[in-house]
Specification:
74 residues, alpha+beta, Arc Repressor Mutant, subunit A, three-stranded antiparallel sheet, 3 helices, 3 strands, 19% strand
């Protein structure tokens, strides 16, 4: 596992959240086919950059972007 891979997954997840809105880790996994630990690493990357926020609904944690109008991830 390389830092570059985590960064690429973070970009993919950022784009997915941008396109689809709030998603759970499970939904992200279903849509990307990535293994859970790689998703969690990428979510940690995005959280460290203050790009996402978390909220809970019916005991499920969801992730959504924080004001993404000026950001571009590819």
């Amino acid at each position: 596992m390389l830092k570059k891979d985590i960064g690429l997954n973070a970009g993919m997840i950022w784009r997915l959240l941008f396109d689809k809105g709030a998603l759970s880790v499970r939904q992200i996994g279903e849509l990307t086919g990535r293994e859970e630990k790689m998703i969690l690493y990428a979510i940690g990357w995005l959280a460290g950059e203050n790009k996402i926020r978390f909220f809970s609904k019916r005991e499920v944690v969801y992730i959504e972007l924080i004001d993404c109008h000026s950001d571009i991830y590819y």
